[in-house]
Structure formats: structure tokens, C-alpha cells
Amino acid sequence: MKRMPAFFRFILAAALLTVSYAGSAHAAEELIVSAAASLTNAFGEIATKFEAANPGVKVVTNFGASGALLQQIDKGAPVDVFATADQKTMNDAAEKKLIDPGTRKDFARNGLALVVPRGNAAKVASLKDLARKEITRIAVGNPQTVPAGRYAKEALTHEGLWDELTPRYVLGESVRQVLDYVSRGEVDAGFVFTSDAAAAKGKVEVAAGVGNHSPILYPIAGVASAEKKALARKYIDYVLSAEGMAVLAGFGFEKP
Q1: Phi, psi of 162 (to 5 degrees)
Q2: How far apart are CA 69 and CA 147, in angstroms?
Q3: Most buried of 60, 182, 206, 236, CB within 10 angstroms?
Q4: What residues contact 83, with CB distance under 8 A and at least 6 apart?
């Protein structure tokens, strides 16, 4: 087999180097967004729309319990934008100086629902029904890190039921894990946001709306250590825009 002449090998190498340089020069600019698990569907669509409106930008989303996401940021995880399902977690982030306070905005409101597996075999229709002896497994987000669990604890405490029902709790590490427990029929009932209940329509039923808890307001902010502060502000502005609000409304969220 004949070897390629040295001149042509040089030209080919130069061409490959040029292509490689061009590819790296046009690599997508990544924006990392850590957001509450209940925002999974809505922020997934917002990411797609934001990328379409900003060619060359790639939104990398990280969803989980708000408290767990805060711990990640506190330990140095690279994050540009932080969105939580409660004010407490964002307040904690502010106290730790982990966010840029000038970028903090409330962007959505949600509700809390008591949901049951499809068919509602246990015939649950209220919080008081959870005290019936045949109700043995109740899914609740861990109140230490999951806002939905904290709101549920407030509501059950108001009804005088929190301590009584403690042996029956199946703690979830996120509101979406709680939703999965209920969807699969592994528990008799569970507490999720109304937007989550809407996302699982057909798999769960809303037994009752839940009140007597703190207002469920979602804040968003740029992270203080963010490398892409300008892009983070642009993303936050998009979430707050008419387009962003329309997406959130489509997934069951209300305006703050």
C-alpha cells in the first residue's frame, strides 16, 4: 500500500485541526439550572424554548428536593440558576450568601393535594380519613428537605394528626418520589403539589385539596458563584416573561 506524500499528509492534518478548532469554538454555552422536582416538566419545556430563542446555549437541568439541591450548591456544585418550591430554602441560601439577592424573584404559586391511587380503593376523602386503622401507608416528602413534605406536616399538625400518623409515613426524598409511590399503588395516599397531581392524571386521583399551610410560592435566583451571571439573568427573565408564564400555566402553576 502506497504511503500518502508528506505534503498531502500535512494538508490533511491542517484541515483536521481546523475542523477540530471550529467545533470547539462553536461548542454550546452551558447554563446549569438546579430546580425543585415539581418543576421537572415545566422547566424541561422552558429549557427547550430558551435554547431555541438563544442559539448556541445548552440548558443543563438538575431536579431534586429543594433542600438537597441547596446542600449541593453549598458544597460547591457548579450551578448558575436555583429555583425552589418554598421560601425557606431560598432564605437559607440567601443567609449563606449562595445566591445573588438582586436576581431573586417569585415566579409561581402552587397548591397541595392529598392524592390516592387510581380507583381510590381505600375511600379516602379527607385528612381525617387518614386516621382510619385500615390506612397503613401514607407517602410524605421528608420535611427536612422536601417542601411538599413540610407543607403537609403543617396541615396535618393543624388537624392534630401529624404525631398520630407518624408510624404510617413512607418518606420520599422528593415530591416526585412520593407521586411515584402513589401512582404505583404502593401506599394508600400521599401529599403532592397540585401540579404534580395534574402531571399524573389517570394514575392518581385527588382525594382532597389541602389547606392550613404556608403559601406555596416558588422563588428563582442566580447563584452567587455562577460563571455565567449574564446568561443566568437572561434565563430568569425568560421564566418571568409571558412565554415562560404560559408554559408554567400549562403545567398547573399559577402566577405568584
Answers
A1: -55, -55
A2: 12
A3: 182
A4: 33, 34, 35, 36, 39, 43, 107, 218, 219, 220, 221, 239
Alpha-carbon distance of 141 to 177, in angstroms, equals 8
- Look up the pTM and report it: 0.87
- Residue 187: what residue type? V
The 10s digit of each residue's pLDDT in 211-246 is 999 999 999 999 999 999 999 999 999 999 999 999
Q: Residue 48, Cβ neighbours under 10 Å: how many?
A: 12
H helix or E strand, kind and range, residue 141:
strand 138-141
Place of cell 469554538: 25
Rounded CA gap, 114 and 126, in Å?
8
Residue 224 phi, psi (nearest 5) = -60, -35
Q: Judge contact between 147 and 217, C-beta under 8 A.
A: no
Nearest to 108 by CA among 164, 170, 46, 163: 46
| Complete DSSP assignment for 86-114 | SHHHHHHHHHTT-B-GGG-EEEEE--EEE
Q: Is 174 helix (H, G, I), strand (E, B) or coil?
A: coil
